[in-house]
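[AMINO ACID CHAIN]
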Amino acid sequence: MGNGVKEGSARLREDAEAILSAPVSSKRDHRQVLSSLLAGALAGALAKTAVAPLDRTKIIFQVSSKRFSAKEAFRLLYFTYLNEGFFSLWRGNSATMVRVVPYAAIQFSAHEEYKRILGHYYGFRGEALPPWPRLLAGALAGTTAASLTYPLDLVRARMAVTPKEMYSNIFHVFIRISREEGLKTLYHGFMPTVLGVIPYAGLSFFTYETLKSLHREYSGRLQPYPLERMIFGACAGLIGQSASYPLDVVRRRMQTAGVTGHQHGSILSTLRSIVREEGAVRGLYKGLSMNWLKGPIAVGISFTTFDLTHILLRRLQS
């Protein structure tokens, strides 16, 4: 009898502790999500601003039939600076920030959540995920972010390839597109974006997390130095962007068809058009060398900034 009463009171005490700790756990989860969002937003903003002139130059070549070379790219940068001024090299960067800040915030935060969910599902809570779930977490994070912010990416591409007189600001782009081309145009090029994001985000996060895991295993240190994070991020960007680059070219052509004289078409028709007019390698990989310059820099800055900011915010919270 006495034992039964003791067991019953022990269970009641455990239940009460679980109920009392639930709001604390929920509050902790909300803080973690918020810190991931803030760290991701800062990471995206710094990374994209650092490489904005190179990014704009790459887009201009992607949507035109001009042959790309490093010499022509830097000539374009130089003449843009001479004719339109230094800050014109960052034209469209305001639209980029409007897109990149929520995109990076959602992507990094979603990646942390997908890692937690998949880790719980596969029984790896608090440990590094095995390869396939690691790849899946990155792909799902990129797809989630791209789906929620795609119209902003289209607006940014339009602003990058048009003169200042055509679109005065971000809102002007939205208004003109909706009036002249219809609201559905805001999602034109969405499918190649998602098809490109899956290998890009999947391989980028997979490579970065794998390199960190290998570093932890062989160096004996729990955290890499900032420079090591930059190198891991650069490798991740190089692999991810190279794998998805042809779809990036197709996406840009579809996004800017209304202002560059190209006809709106499907993924396959745009792909065939590029190959027919410019050749498979020259057309589909146009500007890739520029991407090899800017991509590793941007992704290295992005991953490093996110990790360091996230660590700092968690320390402040604790």
